[in-house]
Amino acid sequence: MVMKQQTGSALIVSLLFLLILTILGVAGIQTTSMQERMSGNMRDRNMAFQAAEGALRGGEEYVRDNSDNESLFEGKDLADPASWDGTNGTEHTVSDKLSDDPKYFVSEPGLYRVNPGELPAEFHNIFPVNAIGWGGTNLTSVVVETRFRPVQ
After folding, report:
1. Predicted confidence (pLDDT) at residue 4 exceeds the cutoff of 80
2. Of 4, 24, 22, 26, the residue nearest 14 (C-alpha)
3. Plot region of 86 (φ>0 → left; ψ -120 to 50 → alpha; else → beta)
4. In-domain check, residue 5
5. Strands (E), 24-150
6. pTM for the complete prediction?
7. How far, in Å, are 22, 42, 51, 139 from residue 35 at the CA level?
8. How many separate domains does the chain show?
9. Positive or negative torsion for Cα 75, 107, 126, 150
10. Is residue 106 part of a domain?
11. Does residue 62 belong to any structural domain of this protein?
12. What is the CA radius of gyration of the chain?
């Protein structure tokens, strides 16, 4: 009986195949981890947005209840609402799952014409209302702004 010399090519092919499978597995784990972080950040931002919207409605309610008392709003103004960090804002509690309570700020109203092109001209006080909300962590914040005219 003659013995054939074995070269071991099956071992090399199977090791290369295992290496390729390992690389694919690691890439899949990295992709899943990234998607998990993105969805967590999206949820946190959504929580911050909903909190800011809730505070905005609280600010509008405050204006509705106090619009007759103009002295409450005199001289109040935000220099740059987009970079506002909540300083001097009024807290509006909406949930205990947030990292901080959202806040609103009502600035001094401006007198605006509400019926352009019609006569007689009608002017009403329009109140700028800004709100800031935080998500589950204090790293995520959303600032929203509206112009509010109380029904008269």
Report:
1. no
2. 22
3. left
4. no
5. 90-91, 103-106, 110-113, 123-134, 141-148
6. 0.77
7. 20, 10, 24, 19
8. 1
9. negative
10. yes
11. yes
12. 30
